[in-house]
Specification:
This protein folds into 2 domains: 217 residues, Sandwich (Immunoglobulin-like), CATH 2.60.40.420; 124 residues, Immunoglobulin-like (Sandwich). Helix content is 8%, strand content 27%. The strands form 4 sheets. It has a 6-stranded mixed beta sheet with strand order 2-13-12-15-19-17, with no helix packed on it. The two termini are 38 Å apart.
Length: 346
Amino acid sequence: MRKILVILLVALALLGAACGNDDNGGGNAKKKAAGPSGAQTYDVDMDADASPQYQVAAYYPGQLTVRPGDTIVFNNKSKVHPHTVTFGIKADQSNRPAAITAKGEENPVAFAPCFTDTEASPQLAACPSKADPANPPAYAGRGFWSSGILSAAAGPAAPAKITLKLADSIAPGNYSYVCMLHPFQAGSIKVAATDGDRLTPAAVRTSAEASAKKAVADTSSLKAPAATAGTVTAGWGDRITAVMAYDPAALNVKVGDTVTWKDASPYEPHTVTFESMFKTPGDPGATAPAGVKSGGTYTNGFTSSGLFGPQPFFESNTFSLTFAKAGTYNYVCTIHPGQKGTVTVA
């Protein structure tokens, strides 16, 4: 799972100030006159319990008021899609660690757990200290604190949740965090000066669950854009929700026709892969281009677009093939299990 995310992380380095939190999971409910006393434990969910076809790239709640000594449990609710919780990245992304090292290898700091007082930088290529996501250190409001990939689908090496404890020494103020994989997914915590500024964990949970439920309901309104003849939409959505599907899923063309797949999502990439031999998104080569190149002529056999997606995050948001032989050709997206389509050539 982690290897397929490298190109995503490279693309996010272009993001800059676009990483704002427009409507990311909703904020706190209205504050009450008096909050709970003593240390509290709060839950923040990533994504929502939606159909695997939908990815809801948001935190619930998106903003949370806490006190020093409080605990926050971040939990990825999606059964398929990965996310991270990463503190220490500036709003303009200028200190985001590079996704790959100078040797062209994966940079573990970009998507593996790392907890360090060292400030994040594009040159940070190794976590300065050993990271144990099962026992992360308390967060004191400085340095780089990153969960690494959280995903129920990635096995024990990538747990679905992580616990953050706020150090007693953390200063009052606002602290933002991001998902290293999804450019518009961000959240924040406000460390309050007094207990009375907080809501109870139960009140926060009620508000967050209502926001997540609304986000799931809103997925039904995301319709594929109208496509011209010979064009297939490969994924669509908005800045929060991505739809993992092809539209039309079944396309009929004639010998000699050209089919173009176009990614209409603001951030999520896809592949078009014929006769895929890959069993999981993390298999070597699952995201790499292979076989007939875009614009070429396809007759049969293994061919893959590799990742393509919205610009400027990816080089191109389209892939095209000309079909020279009658037959039925099935294809899939290698990074989104269940996303599949068919081209029938007569």
